[in-house]
Amino acid sequence: MRVAIIGSGLGGLLTAAILSEKGYKVDVFEKLRFYGGRFTNLEYKGFQISTGALHMIPHGKRGPLGILLKKAGSKVEIIDSEPEGEALYGPLSENEYGNGKNERITVRSSVFPLGSKLKFFKWLLKFKVLRVDPYMDRYEEELDDFSQKFLRSFLGWSLSIQPSEIKYSKLLAIYRNVVKYGGPGIPAGGCKAVVDSLAEIIKSNDGEIYLRNPVWGLFHEDKRITGLENKEGKVEYDLYISNIGHQATGKLLGEEYTKEVESRGIKYSISLEKPFVGHTGVLFTLDCRRISGMNEVTNADPNLAPSGKHLLMAHQPMLTPDVEEEIRIGLEDLKTLLKGFEYKVLAIQSYFDGWPVNRVRSGLDIGYRTPYSNLFVVGDGAKGDDIEVDGIALGIAELLRKEFGEKINLG
Ligand SMILES: Cc1cc2nc3c(=O)[nH]c(=O)nc-3n(C[C@H](O)[C@H](O)[C@H](O)COP(=O)(O)OP(=O)(O)OC[C@H]3O[C@@H](n4cnc5c(N)ncnc54)[C@H](O)[C@@H]3O)c2cc1C
Description:
Elements: E1 2-6, H1 10-21, E2 25-29, E3 41-44, E4 47-50, H2 64-72, E5 78-80, E6 85-89, E7 103-106, H3 114-130, H4 137-140, H5 145-159, H6 168-181, E8 185-187, H7 191-204, E9 208-210, E10 217-221, E11 224-230, E12 233-235, E13 239-242, H8 245-253, E14 265-272, E15 282-285, E16 293-296, E17 310-317, H9 323-337, E18 343-351, E19 375-377, H10 388-404
Bound molecules: flavin-adenine dinucleotide (FAD).
């Protein structure tokens, strides 16, 4: 059976690799000159910065992506973070943050005050019994200062959203996955090592990845796709899997069957002479105006920077549409955070309008199905109930189970 994959992001490549292992003849079409989409490296002055992701896999090697990578036969090494997360809490040293002390707190259940933990379970009861499921801004004011700021920082770092943009039930699903699979990990070699390993599997199974080869349209009849249109004209396949989201897939069909709401953010790649974070986990920055967190990927893999240097990646959600102002505030945060450290900002990348942090804001994904019987969507536009690439893996696992009869044990 011949399968066309439209787009070579992580979701497209992972699906293609697994199907090619099962004996499907897979062709991947990518409009850019490289594969990987928002999950690959961009080399700059010896630093492996990225097209999107912060070189992190939310649940490390134990999570849904780790499990599917193994299933595909990928040998990529994922280094689980230790500690998983730390919170930098308290007024930062100078200027508008005041002059108080701040401390680093290892994130674990015991650091959240009992009162706030009980509130979380009170909301759980309200959700289970009364199906009360508000957006989190309705609840966050009931929390103590630390828990409130941690919630904002966690959502900003991992989803580029605010509490007003996620419902309690979705946060609960994320919390359950963190408890089930654990915290993040960093692939040795960064994002590129993951997508390279998938590309290798596809090619070893006689699959093809066609770069600079955009798909311009999809032909259809009676709710079935009959071919795709690219520079060669009409090309026919048995199945079509789109990795470009439902909305863009609709455009290829000449219709709008859904509208997506993206989440937007800004990423800073920073060169350091000596480590600031000092470990392989996330440092959540609770008292910044914009920066929600940072990781220092060279603590997991020193080869992501030139010898003797460190690569620090900081992330902020975009709280207003004014990109320049958002960056100004983000840079001010960094100046305060990194006071006393010799650092250089290597790149500032903003993500919106078709190249966002999340194509579909977490909690709004509509699944892999389309109105067409032989057309499915994978990737950031069709995540399961988890965050980022682990959400993408859950979406793919569901597709493989339901449409291809695969047995997948996600633990
Ligand atoms: C700043 C930032 C930080 C992030 N950090 C993390 C992180 O640390 N951990 C994590 O898990 N996730 C992170 N993410 C999210 C993660 O990067 C994405 O969810 C993931 O990479 C999206 O993969 P995808 O499968 O949806 O494909 P995409 O990356 O969206 O790739 C789709 C591909 O399709 C191609 N394409 C589009 N249209 C066509 C067409 N018509 N024909 C052919 N090709 C086409 C595109 O060029 C692209 O290559 C981050 C994202 C950003 C932006």
